[in-house]
Amino acid sequence: MTMLRAYACLALACLTATPTSADWDKAKLDKEIAAIERQSQGRLGVALLDLRDRKTWSHRGTESFPMQSVFKWPLAIAALQAVEAGKLQLDQPITIRRSEFSLYHSPLAKAFKGDSNAYPLRELIALAAGESDNTAADILMREIGGPKVVSAMLRDGGISGISVDRYERQFQPEVFGLPGFGWDQVIDEPAYRTKLSALDRKTRQAALLAALKDKRDSATPEASVLFVEAQAKGNWLRDPAHNALIDGIVTQTKSGPDRIRAGLPQGAGFAHKTGAGLTMDGVNHATNDIGLVTLPNGRVFAIAVYLVGSTADAKEREAAHAAVAKAAVSALR
């Protein structure tokens, strides 16, 4: 049994052993999260779901927020579902060409040698979900049949409110008003960045404003914690080894140490996926984090924090995440 599964079992056992009287101190959260949102200088979405009694609390919980790399967690699960369906194999080599690199963060691209290399599918899953590698994510998404496969998986699993619609190479340029790249186009990232910087400021700002409201590649905080809960229960995958693989990846990820994790008490466990977008003209597209918290006293809850359109710097945005986590822990009764 994996750690996430053990945590979920503990929480579900509590559900049958005790009255469902636990709750969040909603008045306290309403006040504190509203104050954190004002300090964050952006739009803040938060959802909490206690796995012991399934009591919830949210702030802007049904509003849509751009996910950025948060989508790579359900993407990894969709890839493992394809393995379970016999469409792919974990040790199957996937050839990647230098001409297929995507934009922005990609440890794979940085370490790449020659014109093409083959990677086992399991390595692409770990790179995408664990290291947030954009090239690995795009290739993985293409191998399973495209973004629609991930959205269908979520919908079939009873999760509405999360939509995966485009590849990284498509939606990242569109956030700021440039056309996305198709698979028939080679991305020259330095040239792209020069073009992005040279774009008319008003055009960039208008595109970003539209992107912040775009329902594509977005999630609601409430849908996000339901997704996390389903993973903790083992609802997405049949094979225990596959559950262990994805749980290990999201438990060991080192991203976002100053976000939610920084607001948790010492000894707390945290399995999660972060997401972050560019800051242009003083406005950040998104700074996100969703995951499963296990407190030292055994209480387990899912948390989603989305902060978009913020004019605060990176340190302040991450501090807002930590403040939300601290408030959530103190409000859990």
From TrEMBL:
UniProt-listed Gene3D superfamilies: DD-peptidase/beta-lactamase superfamily (3.40.710.10)
Substrates-to-products reaction catalysed: a beta-lactam + H2O = a substituted beta-amino acid
One Gene Ontology term of the molecular function aspect: beta-lactamase activity
Pfam families: Beta-lactamase2 (PF13354)
Signal peptide: 1-22
EC number(s) per entry: 3.5.2.6
InterPro entries with a match to the protein in the record: Beta-lactam/transpept-like (IPR012338), Beta-lactam_cat (IPR045155), Beta-lactam_class-A (IPR000871)
GO biological process, one term: response to antibiotic
Keywords (A to Z) from UniProt: Signal
Protein family according to the UniProt entry: Belongs to the class-A beta-lactamase family.
Record-linked PANTHER family: BETA-LACTAMASE, BETA-LACTAMASE-TYPE TRANSPEPTIDASE FOLD CONTAINING PROTEIN
Record-given protein name: beta-lactamase
